[in-house]
C-alpha cells in the first residue's frame, strides 16, 4: 500500500526520508519488464501506458483520503483535460512516470516525481529513481538529499568545462529538430565538455543537484517535470530559471534559440 502520509510527515517533520515510496516504484519496476499497452499524446514520441495512469490514480487516491481539501496537478489528468492551474491551496504536482519512453523500451531510467506547493510556494519535492532505488528529496530550507547523502550542485561556471544536460521534448517537426540540434551544436562550439540526453528530465535534474552535471536546459518542460526537481536543485544550492537568467544560465541562454511550447496554464 502506498504510504503517502509518511512522505508528507517525514518531509514536513524534517526526519530523514525512508524509502517507503519504493512500494510505488516496485509497481513500475515490475511493469518495466512486462508487455505494455502504449498510446501517444501530443506526438508519436509522447507516450503513455496503463502504468502511468495506475500510478497516478494510486498516488492521488491515497493523498485525497488523507488530505481531502488538497488540490492536484498531475500529468495524465491534465492530458485527459483537467485544467492545470496552481492556486494558493495546498497542491500536489505529480509525474507518475517520468521517462515513459524509457519505460516503454525497458530502458532503466524512470522516476516518480511528487512536488508539493502551498500559497504557490514549492515546499518539498520527492523524486524516486525506480530502478536504482534512489530517493531524492528536498524540503524548502532543510536541504536536499539522495537517500542519506546531502546533495550539492557543481560550482562550475565555465561553459567550456561544463557537462550540459537536456531533453529532446515531444515536438519532432523538422523546424523544431533543426533548432534542437543547432542549440546543441552551439554549446559544443562553445567547447562544453559534452551534452547528454537521458530521457527523464526529473532524473537529469537530480544529477544536476548531485553535481554530476553542471547545467540543464530544455524548452517545453511541464510543471510536473519541474516541481519536485526545483526544490531539490534550490536546496542543493542551484538555481532554476527561465532563459533570461544568470551566469552559466546566461551563457547557455545567449548561445541557444528558443523553441516555443506555450505554458501549461494557457492550454
Ligand atoms: O512524459 P514523461 O513524464 O516521460 O516526461 C518526459 C517528456 O515526455 C519528454 O518530452 C521530455 O523531454 C522529458 O524526457 C520528460 O522527462
Ligand atoms: Mg510522465
Ligand atoms: Mg515527465
Automatic annotation (TrEMBL):
Recorded catalytic activity of this chain's protein: a myo-inositol phosphate + H2O = myo-inositol + phosphate
- The record's top EC class is hydrolase
Q: Which organism is it from?
A: Monodelphis domestica
- Could you provide one GO biological process annotation from this protein's UniProt record? response to lithium ion
Gene3D superfamilies the UniProt entry points to = 3.40.190.80, Fructose-1,6-Bisphosphatase, subunit A, domain 1 (3.30.540.10)
Q: Tell me its cofactors.
A: Mg(2+)
**Listed pathway(s):** Polyol metabolism; myo-inositol biosynthesis; myo-inositol from D-glucose 6-phosphate: step 2/2
User: Keyword Electron transport: yes or no?
Assistant: no
GO molecular function, one example? Answer: inositol monophosphate 1-phosphatase activity
User: Its GO CC terms?
Assistant: cytoplasm
One Pfam family named in its UniProt record: Inositol_P
Write down what this protein is called.
Answer: Inositol-1-monophosphatase
Name the UniProt key words of this record, in alphabetical order: Hydrolase, Magnesium, Metal-binding
- What's the EC number here? 3.1.3.25
Which family is it part of? Belongs to the inositol monophosphatase superfamily.
Specify which residues bind Mg(2+) according to the UniProt entry for this protein: 75, 95, 97-98, 225
SUPFAM superfamilies named among the record's database cross-references: Carbohydrate phosphatase
Amino acid at each position: 500500500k502506498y504510504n503517502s502520509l509518511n512522505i508528507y510527515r517525514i518531509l514536513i517533520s524534517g526526519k530523514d526520508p525512508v524509502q517507503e515510496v519504493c512500494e510505488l516504484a516496485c509497481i513500475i519496476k515490475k511493469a518495466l519488464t512486462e508487455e505494455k499497452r502504449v498510446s501517444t499524446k501530443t506526438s508519436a514520441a509522447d507516450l503513455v501506458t496503463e502504468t502511468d495512469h495506475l500510478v497516478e490514480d494510486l498516488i492521488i487516491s491515497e493523498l485525497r483520503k488523507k488530505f481531502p481539501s488538497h488540490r492536484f496537478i498531475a500529468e495524465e489528468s491534465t492530458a485527459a483535460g483537467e485544467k492545470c492551474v496552481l492556486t494558493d491551496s495546498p497542491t500536489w504536482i505529480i509525474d507518475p512516470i517520468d521517462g515513459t519512453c524509457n519505460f516503454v523500451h525497458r530502458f532503466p531510467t524512470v522516476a516518480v516525481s511528487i512536488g508539493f506547493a502551498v500559497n504557490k510556494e514549492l515546499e518539498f519535492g520527492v523524486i524516486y529513481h525506480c530502478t536504482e532505488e534512489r530517493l531524492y528529496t528536498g524540503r524548502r530550507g532543510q536541504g536536499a538529499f539522495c537517500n542519506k547523502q546531502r546533495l550539492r550542485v557543481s560550482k562550475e561556471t565555465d561553459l567550456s568545462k561544463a557537462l550540459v544536460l537536456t531533453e529532446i521534448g515531444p515536438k519532432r517537426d523538422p523546424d523544431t529538430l533543426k533548432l534542437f540540434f543547432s542549440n546543441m551544436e552551439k554549446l559544443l562550439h562553445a567547447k562544453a565538455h559534452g551534452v547528454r540526453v537521458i530521457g527523464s528530465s526529473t532524473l537529469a535534474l537530480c544529477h544536476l543537484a548531485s553535481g554530476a552535471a553542471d547545467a540543464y536546459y530544455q524548452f517545453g518542460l511541464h510543471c510536473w517535470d519541474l516541481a519536485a526537481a526545483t526544490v531539490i536543485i534550490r536546496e542543493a544550492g542551484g538555481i532554476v530559471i527561465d532563459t533570461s537568467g544568470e551566469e552559466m544560465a546566461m551563457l547557455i541562454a545567449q548561445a541557444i534559440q528558443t523553441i516555443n511550447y506555450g505554458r501549461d496554464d494557457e492550454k
